[in-house]
Amino acid sequence: MTQLTTLAKPPAVRRSPRRPQRAVALNLIAVAAGLAVWTLLGVLGVQALPTPLEVAAKAGELIADGTLLGDALASLRRVLLGFLLGTLLAVPVGFLMGWYATARGLLEPYIQFFRTIPPLAIIPLAIVLLGIGEVPKVFVIFLAAFLSSVVATFQGVVDVDRTLINAARVLGASDRTIFLKVVVPASTPFILVGMRVGLGSAWGTLVAAELIAAQEGLGFRMQQAQLYYDLSTIFVGLIAIGVLGLLMDRLLLLAERHLTDWQERR
């Protein structure tokens, strides 16, 4: 059994400790440069763009009265629920499609068909069939996350090196053992990348999903601010979505590095 584990997980490659520090430094430089350009455009009055200080002041107001926290929690709940449901379904479906040719033949036409349809185009149908409560909002987000993750999982399974599978068979491994000890570890990087893409799709779909008779949420607040040309509130919503999405993506990235520490990285 140890031989199979060795086949699926090559020795870890040590990375220089200076690389994370350099990456953080470059990130900080990029943020500082972006804020400088934003401030300059705001001071010049380009398209009545608010400055970072004005946006920060508006964020302080929304935090003080509890609006921002309530909206962030509502949006986070919808994204997490849709993303988790989409991922939990996508991973087994992707494994089925990649491991069994019959399942692939039955499911792939539907997956590829719905991939070409933007989740936003499903909103009218979701409203008609599911009403205007929380269910259609979560369903649209779920669909966006599911379609991204299922394709990545499927691709991870079919791209497993056949040499590893053949070597495991030579060692006398059963199909179940090959699947658990070779296919699953080898396809884990694909699954995690698919989850990161699915998370981005979930947040990208949020604003449109909250068009469905929402009473709270970051997307709802931005749409309300649009009616009154309240650019500061719109920027607060955009930044809040970006920060929450970035934090969740970093958590997935940490999980990816932990689960695939055997994979060579640049």
Automatic annotation (TrEMBL):
The keyword Iron-sulfur does not apply. It comes from the Bacteria. One of its GO terms (biological process) is alkanesulfonate transmembrane transport. Pfam families: BPD_transp_1 (PF00528). Residues 72-252 form the ABC transmembrane type-1 domain. It is found in: Cell membrane. Its main location: membrane. The chain crosses the membrane at residues 24-46, 79-101, 113-132, 138-158, 178-199, 227-247. GO terms for cellular component: plasma membrane. Keywords: Cell membrane, Membrane, Transmembrane, Transmembrane helix, Transport. PROSITE patterns: ABC_TM1. It is a multi-pass membrane protein. InterPro entries: MetI-like, MetI-like_sf. Signal peptide: none annotated. The keyword DNA-binding does not apply. Belongs to the binding-protein-dependent transport system permease family. This is NitT/TauT family transport system permease protein. It comes from Nonomuraea jabiensis.
